[in-house]
Specification:
Blueprint (H helix, E strand, L loop, with lengths): L3 H34 L1 H13 L1 H6 L5 H17 L3 H15 L8 H10 L2 H27 L5 H11 L14 H11 L1 H16 L11 H20 L12 H26 L5 H33 L2 H13 L8 E5 L17 E5 L41 E3 L39
Parallel strand pairs: 1-2, 1-3
Helix pairs in contact: 1-2, 1-4, 2-12, 2-13, 4-5, 5-7, 6-11, 9-10, 10-11, 10-12, 12-13
């Protein structure tokens, strides 16, 4: 691309394509729910998929867990439609092209398909799906790495079988981490999703929309959400993106819960009054459901707005830098430096060309930072898989042409442009960013 703006357009175009593909996957998921659970549950699920902040964020993220979420939408939608071939293909897609640990989520699906269909036929479908995704993956990896590798196996081996490595090298979080993040992204939908299985087991006979499901079906369809959440809670290393995989299931089980609650409320109120007033209580249940959807909608929109207003500074700053200060072509290397804010660099799409380098100033972070490479098959020097700091990553402040940093009062890191009369840098552009340490946890 000849201009920096072209690369930024590509950055957003990729997100648009991911969003479109996610919408197609969601349509299959919705169709499966309509077939298996009925109109009421499918309607609430669709509404929750559309308005939840979690799906808003996850659907266009360029992450392996997002690809796995697409696979979950495909596999579960096909499973509900009783199309086992597509369900197996969607599951293999999620495991091989997304994140291999998502296989835990498909255990109930696999058991159901194995017991309901011919075992040999299921094995053939699995082998075909495995070859469909694994062979191209290995060939593409060989083209870029110049050696035969199975990336999925490398990931599993590093995190599971190598006792000296693993995800704990990259930080640990308390068990409350996922509950807080899930509530921020789904508010009361998440609370209802956790109640889905017990409500189904207790009130199945009294809900006219779900009484067609057997106990076995209830356990099979509900258990993946609890299995994945339990698995993630067990692991010390926690990240918000690890929950992307069950976001569609949170919407489904939240919809199941609200339908059961409305049916039970309507039944109780109707039993307390004469039959002539049953139409009134049916309308009352509809009003309660509508008010709940509106509450979820406003909470979700407020969360989307807060993320957009308070956390979008990196996109604004790097866009401005690329379109203005870096817009002129040059053959001289230009260093754009970051310190403690290295992890908020959005993408190399925001740097015009190879003459513009992302460089690092040393901060309080003591882990392994990225390093520029020339060819995909050449491993740069100073690499390790222990997350240990490598000093060859850093440049001196005098070598920086531009510096992108976040400045808060009382921070322990240097104040590069807002610290008083001794600062060396001139502020060219800024954008407000929320100081999470001094804000309410809900922000």
């Amino acid at each position: 691309f000849g201009h920096s703006n072209d690369k930024i357009i590509v950055f957003y175009a990729i997100r648009c394509c991911l969003g479109l593909f996610c919408a197609l996957c969601e349509s299959l998921f919705y169709t499966g729910i309509l077939y298996r659970f009925g109109k009421r549950v499918s309607l609430f699920t669709l509404i929750f998929l559309l308005i939840s902040n979690g799906m808003f964020m996850a659907s266009t993220s360029y992450l392996p867990s997002t690809l796995s979420m697409y696979g979950v939408l495909i596999a579960f939608g096909a499973w509900f439609l009783e199309k086992p071939r597509f369900a197996i293909t969607g599951g293999v897609f999620a495991v091989l092209l997304g994140w291999p640990f998502v296989g835990v989520l498909f255990i109930p699906l696999a058991l159901d398909i194995v017991f309901r269909y011919k075992f040999f036929q299921v094995i053939l479908w699995g082998i075909f799906s495995l070859a469909l995704f694994l062979i191209p993956s290995v060939l593409i990896d060989y083209y870029y790495y110049h050696k035969w590798v199975i990336s999925v196996w490398n990931l599993v081996f590093y995190n599971v079988f190598d006792s000296t490595k693993g995800s704990t090298l990259y930080g640990v979080e308390p068990w409350t981490f996922y509950f807080l993040n899930a509530f921020l992204n789904f508010n009361f939908i998440f609370v209802l999703s956790l109640l889905g299985l017990p409500l189904l087991l207790v009130f199945k006979k009294w809900t006219r929309h779900l009484n067609h499901l057997s106990v076995i079906q209830i356990l099979l369809y509900s258990s993946p959400l609890y299995m994945w959440l339990s698995f993630m809670l067990y692991l010390p290393h926690k990240e918000e993106r690890f929950l992307f995989i069950i976001y569609p299931l949170i919407c489904l089980m939240g919809a199941v819960s609200i339908v059961i609650i409305l049916d039970v409320v309507r039944m109780i109120l109707s039993a307390m009054q004469s039959t002539r007033k049953r139409g009134f209580f049916r309308r009352l249940a509809i009003i309660i459901g509508t008010l709940f959807v509106l509450l979820v909608f406003f909470l979700s929109v407020s969360r989307m707005m807060s993320i957009t207003l308070y956390y979008s500074a990196p996109l604004h700053v790097y866009s401005h830098l690329s379109k203005n200060e870096l817009k002129h072509q040059t053959n001289t290397p230009i260093n754009i430096c970051v310190g403690k804010e290295w992890y908020r660099f959005p993408s190399s799409y925001f740097l015009p060309d190879s003459n513009h380098n992302l460089a690092f100033l040393r901060s309080d972070f003591r882990g392994l930072l990225p390093k520029r490479y020339n060819e995909t098959w050449d491993v740069p020097s100073g690499m390790n898989d222990d997350n240990k700091e490598e000093m060859d990553r850093y440049v001196r402040e005098e070598e920086c042409d531009y510096l992108v940093d976040l400045d808060f009062e009382g921070q322990g890191e240097p104040h590069y442009c807002c610290g008083g009369s001794d600062v060396k840098w001139k502020k060219v552009y800024s954008w407000p960013f929320l100081d999470a340490r001094r804000s309410n946890v809900l922000f």
